[in-house]
Amino acid sequence: MLVIRADLVEAMVAHAREDHPDEACGVIAGPEGSDRPERFIPMINAARSPTFYEFDSGEQLRLWREMDAADEEPVVIYHSHTATEAYPSRTDISFASEPNAHYVLISTRDPETHDLRSYRILEGVVTEEPVEIVPAYSQSA
To answer: Which residues form the MPN domain (predicted)?
Structure first.
């Protein structure tokens, strides 16, 4: 199960809407081994495509090094589908290379709403998982 703060969900959806009609993509990093998404990192879709996303290789290398130095890992890897349902494509499945990550897809095909779903993708096998959205932490807590 993916447990994620509401403000992080809102940030992913806003990024997906902002980049529409191209696919948006990014990462939410968290402490290594925690399975806790904390730091929202929108990325550039180097493909600039409505049907495909690709992290910019330089940006990805810098981010992975930054996460490594901070003892973080990519807890969530997200991207949007602009014209189809929030389900991984064959390409998405073939590029899924982080065994511990939650792969979140946001469908923006309906301008009035969105569909957000999360998957584990291991060795080409896609398993949908429940998503529990929890309140954002209060600043005073």
So the answer is: 2-125
pLDDT tens digits, one per residue of 58-92: 999 999 999 999 999 999 999 999 999 999 999 99
Q: What is the CATH number of the domain that holds 55?
A: 3.40.140.10
Q: Which of 98, 114, 91 is nearest to 37 (CA)?
A: 98
Query: Residue 81 falls within a domain, yes or no?
Result: yes
- Residue 76's domain comprises 2-134
Please give the sequence-ordered ranges of beta strands (E in DSSP) within 37-136, or none if there are none: 39-43, 72-81, 102-107, 115-122, 125-129, 131-134
Residue 141 in domain:
no
pTM over 0.85: yes
